[in-house]
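U., I forgot to send this yesterday:
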Amino acid sequence: MRTFDYASFETAAIPVEVKMYLSMIKEYKGKLQDLFMHKPGTLNQMIHYATRKGAEASNRMEGISTTDKRLAALMDGKVKPAGRAEKEILGYIYCLDLMRKNHDTFTFTPGDILKLHESLYRFSPTATSGYFKSEDTKTETMSAECGDDECGIREILNEEIIRPGGVKTVGFVPVSALDTQQAVQDLCDAYNRAIEKSTISSLILSTQFVLDFLCIQPFLEGNGRMSRLLMIMLLYQNEYKAGKCISFEEMMEKTKGSYCDALRASTKYWHEDANDPWPFISYMLGIILAAYRELENRSV
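Result:
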């Protein structure tokens, strides 16, 4: 089974593009810190807008949607959710609100990740909500994370690649149900050790955590939305607050082709500990930087 040891990043050669992103994000983080301290009125308006756009985009990436009018009414509590789609969107909104208020108490442990998954299905509970998968992922029935057949996780999993020696295999196989709980535990342990040591950029650790989470595919449904929620949570805990006011999910939806290309490039040979994480890390850092730039534009 895949091992998780983020200490390798201490000696890894960081691509020039990634170094540039890290430097620019750090600069924006310091520049915009004042916004979160002295403009509560502007901040609240931006938070409300980001919540709406984030819930809309993240769910739409998985083929779950409602009308703009209904979504606005749902957020304002003027209507009750009608149908499973609106219940799942409302669950995502609930998670975003929960994370903003309680991110300091969230721990990156299997237990808290399961609780967040249960909260995602707060209004549409199923037998699998709040539980790791009990059966192996079936790629032929797996929902496309990007909402269409051209850039879905399903296609990445089913792609045929040539292994060393000319052996043909499918591009990627998620962690088995039997090994999932241990894999999530190992992932959380690796992240917590590395973040406590403070020798590796928290941005690199956060984006790598999300990549590994997506490769594990720990749930029968909701992995894509959970990965985006966890990314926002990781950034909250490491004092990168742009996600409170700007929807990362909306930016990812607008660049979904690049998202899936980066994920495809970074999942190959993942089980062998020989994958290249930098395409996915670079893509996610680009999204974070774009969010800070947008935040600066809106706060002027």
